[in-house]
């Protein structure tokens, strides 16, 4: 069941939400719910993971179906044939890719700091 909550947002955050809502053709409330949902599903800090988890994360990649879908959507985007629904999906996949890349880099640093991987030269 959903609950109605009223929030007072800092102007900079409200402006970012308005910009994202306009860019994605959504209501500002939808954007804010998406952002809050992402926080709920946030991953634990990399340095709190076990050695095995750090090593696995440092080797992580997009799953093949997501990678294939991302490639297809990027090709459609280059050709200018991306519709609104596909554009939103591309945005989501790119967000997942960027977040994954950052976490992978963090995991590599932690792995090196813990002596699990040799330093990069």
What is the end-to-end distance? 53 Å
Average of per-residue pLDDT values = 93
What's the helix count? 5
Helix share bin = 55-70%
State the total count of DSSP E strands.
Answer: 0
From the spread of the alpha carbons, the general shape counts as globular
Order of helices and strands: HHHHH
What's the Cα radius of gyration?
18 Å
Which structural class do you get from the secondary structure elements?
A: mainly alpha
Report the biggest beta sheet as strand number plus sense, adding barrel if it closes. Answer: none
Based on the structure, what is the oligomeric state of the protein chains? single chain
Strand coverage percent: under 5%
| Poorly predicted tracts of residues | none
Describe this structure in words.
Helix 1 (11-24) crosses helix 2 (28-40), helix 3 (51-58) packs across helix 5 (84-113) and helix 4 packs across helix 5. The chain is 66% helix and 0% strand. It contains five helices and no strands. It has helices at residues 11-24, 28-40, 51-58, 64-78, 84-113. The radius of gyration is 18 Å and the shape is globular. The chain is mostly helical.
């Amino acid at each position: 069941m959903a609950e109605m909550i009223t929030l007072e947002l800092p102007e900079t955050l409200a402006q970012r939400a308005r910009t994202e809502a306009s860019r994605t053709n959504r209501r500002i409330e939808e954007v804010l719910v998406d952002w809050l949902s992402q926080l709920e599903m946030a991953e634990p800090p990399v340095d709190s993971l076990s050695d095995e988890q750090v090593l696995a994360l440092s080797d992580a990649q997009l799953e093949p179906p997501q990678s294939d879908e991302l490639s297809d959507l990027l090709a459609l985007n280059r050709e200018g044939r991306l519709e609104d629904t596909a554009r939103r999906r591309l945005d989501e996949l790119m967000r997942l890719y960027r977040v994954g890349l950052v976490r992978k880099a963090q995991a590599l640093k932690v792995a090196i700091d813990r002596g699990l991987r040799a330093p990069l030269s």
